[in-house]
Design brief:
Chain lengths: ~375, ~375
C-alpha cells in the first residue's frame, strides 16, 4: 500500500442555507478543494462522495453521476458511499484505499447534505432511518432519545453531571468563534445549556448538534504526486473502519461504542501510535454525551472519567488534548454526509498551521460515527 | 494489484416477494454465498453492499451497519455504495479493488432492493431520482420516457424496428425458463410484446424490465485464499467503471452510452482482451433498447446493427455471442441494487459450467448501468 496525502481543502459555509441545493453545495466544495490543491478539474481521476440520504432529503439519488458531471470531472469513476452520519469519513477512507492501492493517483473525497427545506418528511424522521427501522424507528425511537439513554446510564454509573455535558457545548461554541464556516459563532454558557429546552431527558436543545446544509471536499494524492504538487502535504498515517450492531439494545455495553474502539485500534496500529501521541482531535459530538464517550473509546481518558476531564478544561485549546477545535458538530454544524470530511479539513488545517484555533500540532485524529455507533471511521494525520 | 477470484455465490428468488423485507433478502443472499464458498461468517473480513434507495424504498439507510449485524459479520468494515441501478456492479468493483489492494483477503459483495410494498412513494417516482431531479425529474421525465427517446432515435437513424426490440424480450424470457430464481418463467412471442400495453412510445410493457424484490451476493478472495478454499475459482480479469452526464440532453450522442464505452475500454485493456474474445455476456437490458445499445457500446456489433443482429438470433444460446442467458433484467427481474451482482453470478455459473443455459464459455462479461447511462460498470471474468 502506498503513502497518501491530503493536498487540497474546500468547504462551503455550514448553516441553514435556504438558497442553496445539494448540487451547488457539492460543486462549491469540490471546486474549492481542487483550486486549493493547485490542480484543475481534469487532473481528478476518481471521486468518492458521502451522503446520508440524497433520496429522502433531496429527492436525488445517483449523485455518483450527477456530482462529477456538474463539477467538471465528467466521465471519471465516481462512487457514492453511505454509512449514515459517517458517510463523509467513509468517503475519505475509500478514496484513501483507492490511491493507496495504486488504482489512481489523484482523488477527490467529498461529503454533502442538504437537510433544510424538506418536502414530505421531517428531518428527525429521515435521521431515524440511520437507526434500525425494524427494532427502533418503528417504535418511535429518535436519535436524541437513543443518546439520552446513553447519557442517563453514564450519569448513573459514573456520576457524570449535566453540567459536565454542557461544558462540551460551551467549549465547542467557543471554538467555533474562530471558524468562519461555522453555523453558530456565538458563545454560550453552562447556564444557557441547562436552561435550554428539554428534548429527551437529560439532552437539552444546546446539547444537540443542529440541522445543517453544507458540503466539504479534500483532494488526496499518491506520494509521488503529492510531493510534486504540494509544499504542505499532510499524510494519512492510519485509517480504521468498523461496524457494530445498528440498534442499541443489541450491544454488550451501550456506553462503549465498539465500532469506535475497533476502528481506532486499527488506525493506531497502522500509524504505530498510541492515544497519548494524538495532539488534537475532531470527534463526533452529535450530542454532548457523544463527545464524552468518544474521549473514552478513543483511549484519551479512562472509561467514566470524561465528564471530569472536560470540566477541568483538558479538552480546550491549551488543555491536555484539544478536541473539536473547529467547533465540532455542535457549533460548526452537522450536515451529516459532509461531517467526516469537514473533520479532516480541520485536522489538516491544524497540521498546516492554518487553523483558526491553531495548536501547533503535528499529529491529529478524526472520529466519525454513523447512527448510535453502528459505524465508526477513524483517521490519523501527520505533518 | 493482486489477483482476485469469485469463490461463492448466493441469491434469493427474484419477484414480487410480499412476505419478504430488505434485511431478510440481504441476509439470505449473503449467507448462501458464504456457504457456497465453504467458509463461515467469521471468515468474512469486509462487506460491500449496493442498494439504490434504502431510504425511499424501505425507510432504512445505514445498511452498512445493519446488514453485517443481521448476517453474523458483526464489527467488520462495511460499505454501502450507490450508483442507482449500477449499485450492485459498483459494490462488486469496490470489493474487487479492496482485495486487489491487499487491504483484506475475503470480502462479500452484495446487492439488494425491496421495491414492492411501498408506503408514500410510487416506484416510478423513486426510480426517477436516478435521473437528474433538477433537469429531468422535475419536468416529469420517467425512465420509460427517457429510453423511449433513445429507441425512437435508433429507429429513425438506423431503421431498427419494434419487432427487433421485441426479439430481445422474447429471447430473454426463453432464457429465464432455465433459471429457477427468475421472476418470469414464461415464454412470450414477438406478437405478445407488440400487443402489450404501450408505456411510452415505442416502449411497451413487455419491452420493460419489471419491479422486483431480491438480493444477491458473491464471495471474493485473494489468489492465495481462493486457491486454498476453492476448486472452481473464477477470476476477475478486468474491471472498468465510468460516469457520464446524468441527464440525457447533455450528451454528445444519446445513442452512445459513453460511460459504457469507457468502462468497457478499461476492462478490456486490463484483461488484455477484445470484444471478439467475449463468449457470453450479461448486459443491462432495463428496456429492450438498452440491450441493443449495449451490444453496440460494448463493441460486439457495429453501431446501428444491433437490431438485425438480434433478429438473426446471434445473441441466443448457440448464436455468435449469447447475451443474458440468465433471462436478463427483463425476465430474471430487476431488483435494482442486486442486478449487478446477479449478473456476476450468472457469469460465474457459466464459467463453472453450472448455468441453466450452459454455453461452455471460458470468458464472460457483465455490464451494469445506472440511470440512463450516468454510470456504467463492466467486469470480465475468466475460468
Amino acid at each position: 500500500m502506498r503513502k497518501v496525502a491530503v493536498i487540497g481543502l474546500g468547504q462551503t459555509r455550514f448553516g441553514q442555507l435556504w438558497e442553496r441545493g445539494l448540487t451547488s453545495l457539492s460543486v462549491e466544495a469540490g471546486v474549492k478543494a481542487v483550486r486549493d490543491a493547485g490542480i484543475s478539474q481534469k487532473d481528478v481521476e476518481v471521486l468518492y462522495g458521502g451522503t446520508m440520504s440524497g433520496g429522502l432529503f433531496a429527492n436525488q439519488e445517483h449523485l455518483a453521476s450527477k456530482i462529477p458531471d456538474y463539477s467538471g470531472f465528467k466521465n471519471i469513476p465516481s462512487v457514492r458511499v453511505e454509512a449514515a452520519c459517517a458517510s463523509g469519513g467513509l468517503a475519505l477512507r475509500q478514496a484513501y484505499l483507492d490511491i493507496a492501492s495504486g488504482e489512481h493517483d489523484i482523488a477527490v473525497a467529498g461529503g454533502v447534505e442538504k437537510m433544510t427545506d424538506l418536502g414530505n418528511y421531517s428531518v428527525t424522521k429521515v435521521l431515524a432511518t440511520a437507526a434500525d427501522t425494524d427494532s427502533e424507528g418503528i417504535f418511535g425511537a429518535t436519535f436524541p432519545g437513543l443518546y439520552a439513554m446513553m447519557a442517563k446510564l453514564h450519569m448513573h454509573k459514573y456520576g457524570t453531571t449535566e453540567e459536565q455535558m454542557a461544558a462540551v457545548a460551551v467549549k465547542n461554541h467557543k471554538n467555533a468563534m474562530t471558524n468562519k464556516y461555522a453555523q453558530f459563532r456565538k458563545e454560550i454558557t453552562v447556564r444557557d445549556v441547562m436552561e435550554s429546552t428539554l428534548i429527551s431527558d437529560p439532552i437539552k436543545l444546546l446539547d444537540a448538534s443542529p440541522i445543517t446544509d453544507g458540503g466539504a471536499a479534500v483532494v488526496l494524492a499518491s506520494e509521488e504526486k503529492a510531493r510534486e504538487l504540494s509544499d504542505t502535504p499532510v499524510w494519512i498515517a492510519g485509517s480504521g473502519h468498523a461496524t457494530d450492531s445498528i440498534s442499541l439494545h443489541d450491544r454488550e455495553d451501550i456506553l462503549t461504542l465498539k465500532a469506535t474502539v475497533e476502528a481506532a485500534k486499527k488506525a493506531y496500529e497502522q500509524a504505530k501510535l498510541t492515544p497519548e501521541d494524538i495532539q488534537v482531535a475532531e470527534v463526533h459530538d452529535c450530542f454532548t454525551i457523544a463527545e464524552l464517550l468518544a474521549l473514552e473509546d478513543l483511549g484519551f481518558v479512562e472509561k467514566g472519567s470524561s465528564g471530569r476531564f472536560t470540566e477541568e478544561g483538558q479538552t480546550m485549546v491549551g488543555g491536555k488534548i484539544p478536541v473539536n477545535t473547529s467547533g465540532g458538530l455542535k457549533a460548526k454544524g452537522h450536515p451529516v454526509g459532509a461531517t467526516g470530511i469537514a473533520q479532516a479539513i480541520e485536522a489538516v488545517k491544524q497540521l498546516r498551521g492554518e487553523a483558526g484555533n491553531s495548536t501547533g500540532a503535528e499529529i491529529a485524529l478524526t472520529h466519525n460515527v454513523g447512527g448510535s455507533g453502528g459505524t465508526a471511521v477513524v483517521h490519523i494525520f501527520r505533518r
